Amino acid sequence: MIRKIQTRPYHLLLLMALTTFAMSFCYYSSQIDIHLHDTYFIIPVPFLLWTFTLFLLLFWALYHITFRFLLSTILIWLHMIGIVILFPLTIYTYGSPFLFDNVTPYDFATWEVMQRQMLIQTPIVSVFVMLHALYLVNLIGGVIKVVTKSSK
Predict the structure, then answer these.
(1) What is the pLDDT of residue 22?
(2) pLDDT of residue 107
(3) What is the pLDDT of residues 110-131, one digit of tens each?
(4) How many angstroms separate the CA atoms of 83 and 89, rounded?
(5) Which residues, in sequence order, are CB contacts of 16 under 8 Å at separation 6+?
(6) Nearest Cα residue to 109 out of 122, 98, 100, 121
(7) Which residues of 27-65 are buried (b: 16+ CB within 10 A; e: fewer)?
(8) Contacts from 121-127 at CB under 8 Å and sequence distance 24+?
(9) pTM, rounded to two decimals
(10) Contact 57/16 with Cβ under 8 angstroms?
(11) For the purposes of burial, counting CB atoms within 10 Å of the CB of 26, is it exposed (0-12), middle (13-18) or buried (19 or more)?
C-alpha cells in the first residue's frame, strides 16, 4: 500500500475526499450565513464540504485517467503536498477563533474582520490555483514527451 502511494501519490486525494465527506457529518447542523446587499444566503456547511469532496474526487479521477501521460512523479508530489497543506488551512482560516474578534455565530462580522480574513485567504487561494496549474504543466509536458517519443 505504501509503495503504491509512493509511485502514485494521487491516491492521497481519495483519502482526503473520504475524510472530508466523513467530516461533513460532524458539522451537520452548522451553516454559513452570507449577506450580500439586500439578499441573505444560508448555506449548510455539509454542502460546502460535499462540494470540496466532489472537487477532490474529480482531481483523483483525472490523475487516475491521465497518470500514464504525466511527466514527473515529483510534480505530482508537489501538487499533493500543496493540497494536503492548503486545503485544511483554507478550512481552518474560515473557522479559526484566532482570526475573529470574539464573533459569536449570530453576530455580523465587522468590515475589519472580513478584510483581515480576505488578506489571509487571498494568498492561500492564489497558491492553491498555482498548484493546480502544476497538474496542467505535468500533463502537457508528459503528452509532449509521449508524442515526441512515439514520432522517433
Answers:
(1) 92
(2) 52
(3) 667 677 777 877 888 888 888 8
(4) 9
(5) 56, 83, 84, 87
(6) 100
(7) eeeeeeeeeeeeeeeeeebbebbeebbeebbebbeebee
(8) 121/90, 121/93, 121/94, 124/86, 124/89, 124/90, 124/93, 125/90, 127/82, 127/86
(9) 0.74
(10) no
(11) exposed
How far is the C-alpha of 39 from the C-alpha of 96, rounded, in Å? 26
User: Largest Cα–Cα distance in the chain?
Assistant: 66
| CA 59 from centre of chain | 10
C-alpha of 73 from chain center:
20
Any bridge partners for residue 40, and if so which?
35
What is the per-residue DSSP string for the chain? -HHHHHH-TTHHHHHHHHHHHHHHTTTTT-EEEEEETTEEEEEEHHHHHHHHHHHHHHHHHHHHHHGGG-S-HHHHHHHHHHHHHHHHHHHHHHH-TTSSSS--TTSPPPHHHHHHHHHHHHHHHHHHHHHHHHHHHHHHHHHHHHHHHHH-
- Residue pair 99/93 in contact (Cβ under 8 Å)? The answer is yes
Residue carrying the nine cell digits 475526499 = 17
Distance, CA of 93 to CA of 122 (rounded, Å): 11
Cβ-contact 20, 84 below 8 angstroms: no
